[in-house]
């Protein structure tokens, strides 16, 4: 299996005030290493959740908690579903590491205890056999808290042909805090990773009074889904190499060199091969500034084609031979990427830079 370690995304123009010339921003995606390396024999996984009330008493306390915290009935249930689903979706969308079965299995658990003891290996193996997978990613703990605060602020209203006037508004801030626990079980039915995660998000609205500001806040169920989805994505990145966004800049204009001007049109058409051929000519310029920028651009071109050793060589020439300050930072980023790809290759059996 050959897996691309980098994906080309898009190109956009960006004017930088600190540079004398115009630059173009190139967007790409690169595989970043996972925080935890999974067993090589673990290729197929299913997602599951143990966060389910086991008794009528637990269900009663879940409802009671929703009433007293203001989160609303079944808000946590919506969050657990979103959290468990988002792990599988993120693994399918952002990582080639696993073949994911979007089963989202519901396993017996409790909500009143945080992080139950691990499931028995025999039970895990049974579930894996029934689902035809090698391992399980299980949401095993979930707790949310919501708090709404208010404050008074002053706004200045400007109207045509009228003097400015000041009005008092009420600002409402809703904070949603979420604490989760995930475990990943491997082919032997034992825990190969365990993580407790905490995250929070804020939503701010304002109105003439507190009630009006509150009405403009989004429903708590929508908020908890949004936060739960983000946490699920974070855990997916913990256990599998995942694509991250990268942005690189190339120099596309230089009044001192005709080759750099020619390449500008080729970049606009995303004809990178033609642009690179012209940059090769610009790299021979007696003007060290022009040559440095051309070598920098060639480094980006090689990175786009996932040829990191060649990219590093061009970046080093731009930085050391032509003293291009931006190339020094870029060289360091390329070297870090090269080290990261070595880790990815270990975590992603069969990965190839081709």
TrEMBL record:
Q: Which residues form the signal peptide?
A: 1-28
Asked whether the UniProt record includes Signal among its keywords, one would answer yes
The alphabetized UniProt keywords are: Signal
Question: What PROSITE patterns does the database record attribute to this sequence?
Answer: PROKAR_LIPOPROTEIN
InterPro entries found in the cross-reference section: DUF6340
Pfam families found in the cross-reference section: DUF6340 (PF19867)
Protein name, as recorded = Tetratricopeptide repeat-containing protein
Q: Which organism is it from?
A: Hymenobacter actinosclerus
């Amino acid at each position: 299996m050959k897996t691309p370690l980098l994906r080309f995304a898009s190109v956009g123009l960006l004017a930088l005030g600190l540079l004398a010339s115009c630059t173009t921003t190139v967007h790409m995606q690169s595989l970043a290493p996972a925080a935890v390396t999974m067993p090589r024999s673990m290729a197929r996984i299913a997602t599951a959740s143990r966060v389910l009330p086991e008794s009528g008493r637990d269900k009663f306390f879940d409802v009671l908690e929703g009433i007293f915290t203001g989160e609303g009935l079944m808000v946590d249930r919506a969050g657990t579903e979103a959290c468990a689903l988002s792990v599988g979706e993120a693994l399918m969308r952002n990582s080639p590491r696993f073949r994911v079965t979007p089963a989202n299995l519901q396993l017996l658990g409790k909500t009143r205890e945080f992080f139950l003891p691990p499931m028995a290996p025999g039970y895990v193996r049974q579930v894996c056999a029934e689902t035809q997978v090698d391992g399980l990613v299980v949401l095993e703990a979930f707790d949310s808290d919501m708090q709404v605060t208010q404050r008074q602020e002053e706004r200045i209203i400007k109207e045509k042909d009228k003097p400015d006037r000041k009005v008092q508004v009420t600002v409402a801030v809703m904070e949603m805090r979420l604490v989760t626990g995930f475990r990943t079980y491997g082919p032997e039915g034992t825990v190969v990773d365990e993580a407790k995660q905490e995250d929070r998000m804020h939503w701010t609205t304002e109105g003439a009074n507190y009630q009006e500001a509150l009405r403009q806040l989004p429903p708590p169920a929508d908020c908890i889904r949004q936060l739960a989805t983000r946490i699920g994505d974070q855990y997916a990145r913990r256990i599998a190499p995942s694509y991250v966004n990268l942005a690189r800049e190339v120099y596309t204009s230089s009044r001192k060199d005709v080759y750099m001007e020619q390449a500008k049109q080729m970049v606009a058409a995303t004809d990178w091969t033609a642009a690179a051929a012209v940059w090769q000519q610009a790299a021979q310029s007696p003007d060290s500034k022009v040559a440095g920028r051309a070598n920098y651009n060639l480094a980006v071109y090689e990175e786009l084609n996932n040829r990191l050793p060649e990219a590093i060589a061009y970046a080093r020439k731009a930085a050391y031979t032509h003293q291009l300050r931006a190339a020094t930072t870029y060289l360091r980023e390329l070297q870090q990427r090269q080290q990261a790809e070595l880790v990815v290759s270990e975590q992603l059996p069969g990965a190839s830079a081709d």
